[in-house]
Amino acid sequence: MGIAIEDDSHLDKQEYQSLSEFRRWCLDNFLSLSEHGLYCKCYGSASDNLHIPMPTRAISGDFILPMEKVLNRLKSEFGLARLMLYEYKFAKRDNDIEDDACYAELYDNELLGTNIEKLRTAFRVCFGILDKIGNAVALLFDLQSKNNKGKVRHSSFHTFWELENEDRLQKFEAYDNEGLIGLYSIAYDLNHKLEGELSFYKQWRNALEHSFVFVYENEKPESTEVSTYYEEPVFISESEFIESAEHVLQLTRSAIFSFVFAVRIKAEKEALNNIPDILIQNKFLEQKKYT
């Protein structure tokens, strides 16, 4: 006769229902930065409490706190991008704070105003986060590119790897780091030269930043004198852009997790060779929430 084990799944459901509507949306759409939230939606995933150190695993390295500083910045910017997407999709607009700009009616169905700018900004912010990850990883793993004068070049997340260079490839492989492999996989997908399947997202980002992206509602506008004036303008329907923005946020969230895992794996390997300087999370890292 087997031992009866009480099914406490209903408790997880109760805890999930007690979370805010926004937090439940984050968990349901894979947009939380909670390690517990990867597999459970209870109280343990109620906040973005992802950190590099863990209470149960020994780590060592003078790079841990600087990389935690990077993670703080990634969390902050990701939280803003996620909130702007949520507000665009669901939040009620405050009638007292309406966009008071008047726009020329050009009959091209383009969406304009502060509300759509939230969506456009959320999309753009993600690529800034990815580039910050690229710069941190390049520094940490000695993969920084230098110009002819030996000065370090800015690292774009999707291109700095240059693993076609045999020396860099050997260095990359020598690290034997799953988190690093995960980051490269994401970067590969975004790389146009490598024909990455998601490289069009990076092209959209560049157009949003430097050229013109027309987000339209309902039917795609026919070519007009205004749109043909710009070289290769990008036209995206509102529904496609919302879906794509959510996908890019999920991709960015995966990159943040992979970054944390990459640093953690490096720190765990150093701990094996540096026992006296081992750090445990609850001995040195306090958590703080800003309101």
Mean pLDDT: 86
Give the N-terminus to C-terminus distance in angstroms. 54 Å
Q: How many whole angstroms does the radius of gyration measure?
A: 22 Å
Q: Which sequence of strands runs across the widest sheet?
A: 1-2
State the helical fraction.
Answer: 40-55%
Element order, helices and strands?
A: HHHHHHHEHEHH
- Summed up, the helix count is 10
List the uncertain runs. none
Shape: globular
Strand percent estimate: under 5%
The number of distinct structural domains comes to 2
Largest beta-sheet characterization: 2 strands, parallel
Care to count the β-strands? 2
Which structural category fits the helices and strands? mainly alpha
Supply the key terms:
single chain; 291 residues; mainly alpha; two-stranded parallel sheet; 2 strands
Account of the 3D structure:
By secondary structure, this protein is mostly helical. The protein has two domains: 14-49, no CATH class; 54-92 and 106-284, no CATH class. 51% of the residues lie in helices and 3% in strands. It is built from ten helices and two strands; from the N terminus they run αααααααβαβαα. It has helices at residues 9-18, 21-28, 64-89, 114-140, 166-175, 178-190, 199-210, 225-228, 238-272, 281-284, and strands at residues 213-216, 234-237. A two-stranded parallel sheet has the order 1-2. Strand 1 (213-216), helix 8 and strand 2 form a beta-alpha-beta unit. Helix 3 runs antiparallel to helix 4 (114-140) and helix 4 (114-140) packs parallel to helix 9. The mean pLDDT is 86.
